[in-house]
Amino acid sequence: VTAVAPALSRSHTVRKIKNNVATVMVTLAFLIALIPLVWLLWTVVSKGWHALTRDGWFTSDVGTRTYRDPGGGALHAIIGTAEQVLLCSLISVPIAVMVGIYLVEYGRGPLARTTTFMVDILSGVPSIVAALFIYAVFVTTLGGQRGGWLVSLALVLLMIPVIVRTTEEMLKLVPNELREASYALGVPKWKTIARIVVPTALTGIINRHRARHRSRGRRDSAAADPGRLHRQHEHQPVRQGLPGIPAGHDQRAGRQPRREPLVHRAADPQLRCRPDVGRGAHTHHHRHGPEPDRSVARALQQDQPVGGIRQWPSASMRTT
Amino acid sequence: MAERETKPGGSTSNEPAPPLPPPSIGGESVEVPRHRSEDDEAPPEDVRTEVQVSERGAASVRAGEPTAFGSAEPFAVSTLEGAPPVSGAGLISTGRPRIGDRLFHTVSAGSGLFVVLLIGLVAAFLIDRAAPAIADDKSNFLFSRDWSLDTPPLHFGIVDLLWVTVIISLVAMVIAVPIAIGIALFITQYAPKRIARPVAYIVDLLAAIPSIIYGIWGIIVLAPKLRSVQHALYHLGGFPVFRDEKVDLGTIFNGGVVLAVMILPIITAIGRDVFERTPSPNIEAAWALGATRWEMIRMPVLPYGRPGLISGSMLGLGHALGETIAVMLILSKPSPGAPFSFSIFNGGETFASKIANSAAEFNQPQQTGAFIAAGLVLFVLTFAVNAAARSVVSRRKEFV
């Protein structure tokens, strides 16, 4: 016993030291990450604030001034940005939303697999390659001129994968019971998607579209907040007659196992707010989000009439 | 509840469907199991078996038949007196899907096809434009360091660009991956939940900053401060990458540090995701064996998360390889004809920054073709890295 005890205590000390070192290193890693963020924000604000608050920053443009001349503002840049983003959104939103619908509502078979893969690849395409592609098509091949609208086209390439994934995530949040109830009432599939699935998911899609593409910052400030979606979800049932399904519950788990790699979706910072989609993990949401209201779901299970359920869907939707 | 989940859009009539409950269900309710048990058609055990059968059957039917719309089962039959029965949603009497359904399916599948074609078009156009320039290249495209496009015989090769692109990304990875793993562990294993969420939020905030701001900050603010670090590493010596110090500011090292900050949130997000998914029995087993926290992390958490971390790092690498504007602002251009150097304390140009820097010179198809050829190599590089990251994940899915 006397021979073992010192060895034991030594190994115990070593383990303790290792543990403490690891704790320090891990905490240090976080503090290191904090440095550039604070530093950068401080630089931007301290050096840019006086220009931003000057008269005419938002109302005048640069005109013929060079950067050494006084005066001028960012009006041209603001308008140009708005125009390009608007045009880009007009093109990419319909396409990307349809792709998302296809992947979630119809997607199986080789085309869906290829599409998922290509969306992943598209999200990895560097912006300079997207720009070169547009240049190669419209300027070198078709002999056009450089122009702002071509920028929008290049941005389409960068924007589509972001919206596709957001749409997918949002559509997967829609409880399967809504679809089933709709089919049961004789509503055709396309109408179910257009009138029930998409409107229910819409709140989420729009919220996430605000931080759209890389050049303007890829993340919504709220996107990293896991609680936010739960809160949205709690507010929806009133309008749609959506039973208060626990938000972390993967409604489609029983219907189709998702094939796409979860880690890829997690790679997109905008999707971080739904880390538990597609894997049916409840723990995360219990830890982070506020507890969803289950009273409606409970009422449903007990076959009690719940406000809104009996009126849904509206009579106009039952006729095809 | 289980019964309800077995009746999604796709089930069709050619499966061995269980006998439907009598049409006693109101059009407004689909509480099938309750009514069924009331009617006492079958004992509960049998019901459960039927559910499993129909679940499997439905899945296989759906896999083979993409044009199954809605449900073919008329399980929403009205019982109102005198009202005509409402048929199931999917098929009408002709057996063909409704026109609206066909249209919607075609349009959405067409959008999917469009995305696939888009990638194909990108590759096709880049190759089409790059090929003539590569054919006219008097130097070896892959193994030459020349880049002179001003006079008619074109001389260009990608060795320098490839080296700088790869080494700057590797510098970023070397810095970012350990820190990202540390942060992910801090968030998932160390920090109390109250702190973990703001921490995660702060790290995610790093990705909200546009790259041009990183670039300006990197060259104006950060690079001068990194000068002393650079000197220290230089005097440490030893490795060829630290050997000769060509420039003070705008080195590959500076760019790598900034890129590390930029890819940090990507890798952290994935690290968080995989660490959170470590099976809790494994963690509890480690605790029960008396493991310290670090041992608990080393034994169940890190091995479980390794494939995810690898693929996350590769995604970060893909971003670093393609980063344009920040790298372009930071890196100082070496004078043409300067001897090749392995040093990271040197200026240089990556594929992306070279193309962006020279965008004003795109006036003749041949010159443009040279840059498009460089872009093509970058595209292939990022494609390979992303596809590899994806394959790591899908391999992982098989045994998880």
Shape estimate of chain B? flat
Helix content of chain B: 55-70%
Residue fraction in strands of chain A:
under 5%
Please state the average pLDDT score of chain A. 69
Oligomer: heterodimer
Major β-sheet of chain B, in short? Answer: 2 strands, antiparallel
Q: Which pair of chains forms the biggest interface, and how many residues does each contribute?
A: A-B, 118 and 138 residues
Number of extended strands of chain A: 0
- Provide the β-strand percentage band of chain B: under 5%
Strand order of the largest sheet of chain B: 1-2
Radius of gyration of chain A (CA) equals: 26 Å
Low-confidence stretches of chain A: 209-320
Order of helices and strands of chain A: HHHHHHHHHHHHH
Could you spell the SSE succession of chain B in H and E letters? HHHHEEHHHHHHHHH
Number of helices, where a helix is a run of at least 4 consecutive DSSP H or I residues of chain A: 13
In percent, how helical is the residue content of chain A? 55-70%
Structural class of chain B: mainly alpha
Low-confidence stretches of chain B: 1-13, 22-69, 71-93
User: What is the mean predicted local confidence, pLDDT of chain B?
Assistant: 77
In DSSP terms, counting alpha (H) and pi (I) runs of 4 or more, how many helices of chain B? 13
Q: Major sheet of chain A, described briefly?
A: none
